[in-house]
Amino acid sequence: MSHLFMVAQDCNATLKGQVVDYHSKIELNNASILIVESSRMATTDSSGMFSIGNLCPGKYLIEVSHPECTTVLMDVEIRGTTNLDIKLEHHLEELDEVNVVGDAIKNKTKTAQEEQLKLKTLELYSAGNLGDALKELGGVSSLNTGANIVKPTIHGLTGSRVLILNDGVRMQDMEWGAEHAPNIDINSAGSISLIKGASALQYGGDAIGGVIIMEQARVPAKDTLFGKTQVTGMSNGRGGNFNSELTRAFGGGWFVKAQGSYKRLGDHEAPDYILSNTGIQEMGASLKFGKNEFTWGWDARYSYFDTEIAVLRASHIGNVDDLIRSINSGEPSIIRPFTYDLQNPRQKVKHHLGKLRYYKRFEGLGKWNFQYDFQKNRRFEFDIRRGESDDRASIDLDLTTHTLSTDFTWDAKQEYNIQAGLLGRYQDNFANPETGVRRLIPDYNKYDLGAFITGEYKATDRLLVEAGFRYDFTRVDAKKFYRTSRWEERGYDTEFQDLIIEDRGTDLLVNPVFDYHNFSATTGLSYFLVDGSNLKFNYALAQRAPNPSELFSDGLHHSAARIELGDLRIDSETSHKFTTTYHKEFKHWGLTIEPYVNWISDFILLEPADVEFTIRGAFPVWEYRQTDARLLGLDVNAHTDWTNNLRTDHRFSLVKGKDVENESALINIPAANFRNRITYTKTDWNNFEVFLTSTYVFEQNETPENIFVFSPEQQEEVLLEINTAPGAYHLLSLGSQMEFSLGGKTRLTTALNITNLLDTNYRDYLNRQRFFADDLGRNFSLQLKLNY
Amino acid sequence: MKTIKILSLLFATGLFMASCSNDDETPEEVNEEETITTMTITLIPQGGGTTVTFVSRDLDGDGPNAPVITPDDIVLATNTTYSGTVSLLNETETPSENVNEEIEAEADEHQFIFTTGGGLNASTAYADEESDYVSGETGENFTTNNPVGILFTLTTTDASTGTFTVTLRHEPTKPNDGTLAGAGGETDITQTFDVTIE
């Protein structure tokens, strides 16, 4: 206080006032008010009041700061006793923080199991894909079709049960197919949050598996220009990728950000052979611009993603005898010399995403958001076909989605935070008949309406409670041709005869219109114990309407030599998930234990059920059915800082899936796995870091029974080992990284990574190509990154 | 406020786009061009005798119904050499499509494999080669001499019963030893017939 009495002569004006929080109007204690010209300073008392006396009249620049708020500069004219009320923004981490590295990621839920992937980790996967990057997190595995098609699996669930939010837009990219990877450029994300369950109701009520939230790095609210360029080269696939982005921010909140990436790889290699036809070409570009001010703002974003993925040639087979041969031979039936060519079978997908968002903050009340987004997903799948049809897609789908959403967050009160929102969505799927192949997915229109309210309440300094409720209405209006023989075999002629709008003899045109009303809810609490540890408990109720594949699938999948059949009778599935998180940081080590149980009634699953004979031979029939399932799991994370330079990380994930109705194992449940990593860092040596990772994946010993099929080739019933899981495997990988300053803010980062260091032969239970070939062999990748 | 105006205009455009798409349109039926519904084997005895013809027909393609084989009894004469032909049709199209033409045009990528089993006293041999057919790609006859199997011979010896299987493989290893395992590739069509030699 002493400088308050540094009296200047002939000056007796006084500046007094109060500092309050912008939202809650709560008086801020301990805020500093500095008169820049004279270095005179005062601090607010418990009622937010301050006073600086003995000032000469005139214009001053004052700086107001508070430990939890953004610092504000303002011009003030002081004459006599001048009153000044100052509002400070109390959400430092949320808004104006200059945070281009994506370090301060806000939790989306307060009580659910949630983890983050930071930019630094994401950048290592620049030439990889989203699914592989997410496996850095506990409880995450993936359903693969080779190395390029990787679907994230959370706590044993994947596909439509995992929502992906790409900068606030829920991806609509035909996630229903097991061989459909998310159409996202991993390079466009600044950070990723993963919620293991359906607790984040604001994003959707059907996230029985979880939610993946990809966010953009925040653009600083100052005049600046920065960017980065990344080049990665890989030995396995003999290619790499290039990514570059540039952000320009102007004063007044205006900004523009552009990003583009290109990836090209040829055939991948297993330790013993070339995996023929497994190359990829991928392109991503995004442009975002807008105006971000504290009180209001808008932004527009367009992103484009284009991928062409070759699918292992040996995995395209004719009938069940071909499948038996592949399983027994232990080696792919077709091994050719290395090539960059992408031949059939292959997929080609283009995804357009456009988004417009507007927000406004209301003083002392909260923030209002309004968003429209548009997505167009065009998917081609090319098969091995006879004659000139080779260049014509066998699957040609065009999925268009429009979404309007709005929400309001009341965050004015310190203890409360309430968010409510509405959503409307229209989706149109068009299956091109020019393919000359019967449609696997029919033409349909889908309408969604949703409303939610979520809230959190800080009961005490230690206890936080949250709860939410959501309702979703879904209408599917499809037009589909059924073979009359299939219609009758399914028994639809007794139940759904009224859906027929046209009988063309061998085919029926059917118009199913199905409505689904889904409710979801969540409640949970987070408690900080006296010893500093954190205990969280969460319950989430989620309901998911069946996707078009589950309802309408009807046809032969050559890639797997199977006939897949949906069922019109399938109704929504309901999940009850209970999770507990215990987290404690000790001085030199930390521990997180996350057990969970997920009861799903009417769980929709796809399983080999039967065999059908056609003139092509016999095919296993995979049928969608509903049952009651239980998933029980545990994720454990621990880390130890042995010295300032040496750290180890340990992770164990286990999930057990059971069909409780039939007392049998669930299909495609990830095997237990154990990961250990030792990291040595030396900041003095240009941020040198080296780490060795060991991943041990156990054999999945709980699988459904294999089926017996009649083999025309062998003229007898044979056991088709379609459900047998491959053995356990252990992989080592080594990585190292260094950073060099090139003057100014230019930095060069080099990273060398070697995966499958020992070139181990292995196959993974969740890789659909495990019947045909080994997984990837050793890969060296070298990455150069330039930040400027 | 100008930005708000622009935004509302864009939203309105979005809504308009959403509402004007035509959802009452009846989808066009897919013309299944690649299905093979029918395989006919014709066996003409060399030196005279009764021609034997048998057919496997699966009119619902990949649908649930199994193929139907006619006739029920396939009877061949003892100690006879038959000249055989395989004919493939797609009868889901009207008029039905002759699939043989496509096989011939890609003779180098296809091969019929003939196998006998269950103690049937019969052997088969190829009676054609790729160079008999005109390549769809070049418009000229193939220059390679690997067997195709649209034409074949079947020679019977003593009276017996067993099976005769005809398999069409797409992209097999060529040349091969004429066995299913040796040929590899993927099966386009396969049918086993119960046969009596008497």
Comma- or semicolon-separated keywords:
heterodimer, A: 788 residues, mainly beta, 22-stranded antiparallel β-barrel, five-stranded mixed sheet, 6 helices, 45 strands, disordered N terminus, B: 198 residues, seven-stranded antiparallel sheet, 15% helix, 37% strand
Descriptive report:
The complex is a heterodimer of chains A (788) and B (198). Chain A has 788 residues and is mainly β. Chain A contains 6 helices and 45 strands. In chain A, the strands form 7 sheets. Chain A has a 22-stranded antiparallel β-barrel. In chain A, a hairpin with a 4-residue loop joins strand 41 (707-711) and strand 42. The radius of gyration of chain A is 29 Å and the shape is globular. In chain A, 47% of the residues are buried. Chain B has 3 helices and 11 strands; from the N terminus they run H-E-E-E-E-E-E-H-E-E-E-E-H-E. Chain B is mostly beta strands and 198 residues long. At the A-B interface, helix 3, strand 24, strand 25, strand 27 and helix 4 of A face helix 1, helix 2, strand 10 and strand 11 of B.
Brief rundown of the structure:
With 788 residues, chain A is mainly beta. Chain A contains 6 helices and 45 strands.
